[in-house]
Amino acid sequence: MSTIGDVAKIAGVSAMTVSRVINDSGYVKQDTREKIEKAIMQLDYRPNMVAKSLVTRRTNIIAYIVSDISDPFYNKVSKGIAETCLKHNFSFIICDATNQRILDSQIRMIGDRQIDGVIFHDLDIKQAEVDNLLSLGRKIVMLENETNLKSVFSIRGNDKKGAKQATNHLISKGHKRIACLKGPTDQRNSMGNLSFQDSFKRRAWIERTDGYEEALSDSGLDFRMFFDGCVESAMGYSLAQDFVRRWKELPSESRPTAVYCESDILAFGVLSKALEFGIKVPSELAIAGHDGLDMASMIYPQITTVKQQRYTMGQLSADMLIDFIEHGQREGSLLLDEELSQGQTT
Fold first, then answer.
1. Which domains does the chain have, with CATH numbers?
2. pTM (global) more than 0.85
3. Which of the two ends of the chain, N or C, has the fewest CB atoms closer than 10 A to its terminal CB?
4. What is d(CA 56, CA 51) in angstroms, rounded to the nearest whole number?
5. Using the 8-state DSSP alphabet, how is residue 294 labeled?
6. Could you read off the pLDDT of 247-304 as tens digits, one per residue?
């Protein structure tokens, strides 16, 4: 295995000069730099990252902490992070935070270990936790946090606008009785045994419900009908199927002819039970989802859904975090537009 001394010998310079080039820590003449870089390539030299981190006080490692790693929403977000990290010669680790105790442990780990920065996604991080990590030199980007925080950068999807698009699309198809299958928007719920994410996730549901109601109001429609849903996949799927059972029990003149589901998981559940019961989709019941999961376009009939920019969300968050690590933390926010993708269920 080659050493920094071997590189220095071939390039005809001191080991200290090679170190400056590797760590980008001081001025080196361009022709000398080129000699060193050529020697590094010739020897296929790999710097000792532990030793390098002692000099730069950086490890080029970031963490991505999500509330449920099994949720299919996060796959493209993590891909965007991974490809951006590769481009910048960074590594990243994914951490699952399925309850408050684990989340607290993950936050302590970020502070205790040599991790340069962290992307928190779909969590309820508090200002005191942010302030503590920043005081330890960690850099932070928030994705869809429950509350707005100072001193960090946050990225969110425009949930209200997306929900309004979906509902307006159903209205444009002639529907006047449009139901909403939504998540719990306050601490009071009749479901019990909620997942960790459902125990705090309110913001997205509130904004999507507001978008649904605003679209109906703008169109002069008085009909409102709400049904319970949630984030957790198995329970959400089951609640969505319950909606179809209750739909069949309603008099035909009172049944909604369409339903806006505030997540694609809920839309999958509605579609599955509707097909099982022989309900014609979309002529008897039109279905629109939200999130743009890959499966929405892979099943038949393809689900109409509001697509979030999941890959872009990951790419931007990693780009910004790496910039903060290299140039200092910044505060700000970004709202990403969402796009309606029409399938065969509306």
1. 4-56 (1.10.260.40), 61-157+310-338 (3.40.50.2300), 159-307 (3.40.50.2300)
2. no
3. N
4. 9
5. G
6. 999 999 999 999 999 999 999 999 999 999 999 999 999 999 999 999 999 999 999 9
